[in-house]
Give the backbone structure.
Amino acid sequence: MRFARHLSHTFADLLKEEAGASFIEYALVASLVLVVCTLLLLAWHKQN
């Protein structure tokens, strides 16, 4: 349980910093792009 508490504090500290917030935004955008590309590839593979 200590690890989860430490992780939540680390995440909160990361959000307080502008660089940390930017990193999280880029990570979210990158994951969204990855999901969209995966879905496009699956749809394309299903057509062929």
Summary: The CA atoms of residues 6 and 12 lie 10 Å apart. The chain has a mean pLDDT of 83. The chain has two helices and no strands. The longest helix spans residues 18-47.
